[in-house]
Amino acid sequence: MRAKQAAPGRAHGAPNRVRIIGGQYRRRLLDFPDSGGLRPTADRVRETLFNWLGQDLPGWSCLDLFAGSGALGFEAASRGAARVVMIERDRAAYEALQRNRATLGADAVEIVRADALAWLAGNRENFDLIFVDPPFDPTAAAPALADLAPHLRPGGQLYVEQATPVEAPPGFIIHRSGRAGRSHFALLVKE
């Protein structure tokens, strides 16, 4: 008899849980709420992304612009990022992120409740890596991508995941890309 595989949005068969796949929080589970459009990056996609990045991110500064479940940001913190800023506007998702940070003891993670685009417009920080994985809406990433170049350090990288194929905005080139189910994802490098 074949074992049943966990459905998307589930870890170990539990609804609304996602597993950290590497680093110091490896195998730890994150709970997230039932919110429209909230879909964590799948394990195999995160594994591919962190293989592309070189597994560990020692001392990196990361921005998880549409944090949602926090899978990408907590994964970066687990792999040694010195600072991870997570932006989330949904109250239930924000509160779940706060609880997960406390459970993990993830002191490198800063969680901000704000609209991602408004926060970006009012912020002048630079990051080594920015995650852009908005709710599954084909138009959601475009406005953010147009304004990201000034927020990346020289040589900085941008990860984009969306429902349609990723196109590089001005100032970026696609370094690697892939597809898993309905998700298209790419790692872009600032020119």
List keywords for this structure.
31% strand, Rossmann fold, 191 residues, alpha/beta, two-stranded antiparallel sheet, seven-stranded mixed beta sheet
Architecture overview:
The protein is of the alpha/beta class. It has a single domain, classed as Vaccinia Virus protein VP39 (Rossmann fold). Helices cover 23% and strands 31% of the residues. The chain is built from five helices and eleven strands; from the N terminus they run E-E-E-E-H-E-H-E-H-E-H-E-H-E-E-E. The strands form three sheets. It has a seven-stranded mixed sheet with strand order 7-6-5-8-9-11-10. Helix 3 links the parallel strand 6 and strand 7. The longest helix is centred in the middle third of the chain and has 14 residues. The radius of gyration is 15 Å and the shape is globular. The N terminus is likely disordered.
The CATH topology corresponds to Rossmann fold
CATH homologous superfamily title: Vaccinia Virus protein VP39
Helix content: 10-25%
Please identify the top-level CATH class. Alpha Beta
How many separate structural domains? Answer: 1
Strand order of the largest sheet: 7-6-5-8-9-11-10
Number of helices: 5
N-end to C-end Cα span? 51 Å
Mean pLDDT: 86
- What is the total tally of β strands? 11
The biggest sheet amounts to:
7 strands, mixed
Bulk shape: globular
Unreliably modeled segments: 1-14
Which CATH architecture would you pick?
3-Layer(aba) Sandwich
The ordered H/E elements are: EEEEHEHEHEHEHEEE
Q: What is the CA-atom radius of gyration, in angstroms?
A: 15 Å
Judged by helices, strands and strand pairing, the structural class is: alpha/beta
The percent range for strand residues is 25-35%
